[in-house]
């Protein structure tokens, strides 16, 4: 029987011969593994290793498997990881809808079809009717929602969250936590969240691994 979800099997990250972290953990579909630690402890580097974009300055070892398939040696674009960062990183020269449509898989053909999919994704994060807007006219919370919609339409097989709530005020932060984790659960996506915020870990509701302490 194939294991479902994301498996980190003896994943180790080192810098200059010094081990930063070592972790073995299974993350079921829809569940969240929260990795906590101070700055410089290797939290973001772990995401880079899992996502396939580890800086050559670091050494990484161990297996990363998705639904039983070993993706450790695949290039980043073949791993299909959905990424959310502190900043929304929207394309300023595109409309809100254009930002979302950009991430749609190439197999979804036809301009009208892609436009409809993008609008549907925006409606799913509470931004119905925002498609023609310029990203610069959005609030921080709205930009975060667009980034989430863009990530979800890319058909990822996992979500990697690098402190995506840290730039939002307290009320928006809680709203985005609830939205992101609900969408991940509904989509059956295993999630790794790195953060230094205990409230993030509490909202995620899954296992917590503490490093660098």
Instruction: Give the CATH architecture of the largest domain.
Output: 3-Layer(aba) Sandwich
Question: Quick one: biggest sheet?
Answer: 5 strands, parallel
Global shape: globular
Order of helices and strands: EEEHEEEHHHEHEHE
* Highest CATH level, the class of the largest domain: Alpha Beta
How many structural domains?
Answer: 2
- How many strand segments? 9
Structural class, by secondary structure, is alpha/beta
Distance between the termini: 37 Å
How large a portion of the residues is in β-strands, by DSSP E? 25-35%
Mean pLDDT: 94
Helix content range:
25-40%
CATH topology descriptor of the largest domain: Rossmann fold
Q: How would you name the CATH homologous superfamily of the largest domain? A: P-loop containing nucleotide triphosphate hydrolases
Q: How are the strands of the largest sheet arranged?
A: 6-7-8-3-9
Determine Rg (CA atoms, Å). 17 Å
Low-confidence stretches: none
Number of continuous helical runs: 6
What does this protein look like?
There is one protein chain. This protein has 213 residues and is α/β, with parallel strands linked by helices. It folds into 2 domains: 1-80 and 157-213, Rossmann fold; 90-155. 32% of the residues lie in helices and 25% in strands. It starts with 5 loop residues before the first strand and ends with a strand.
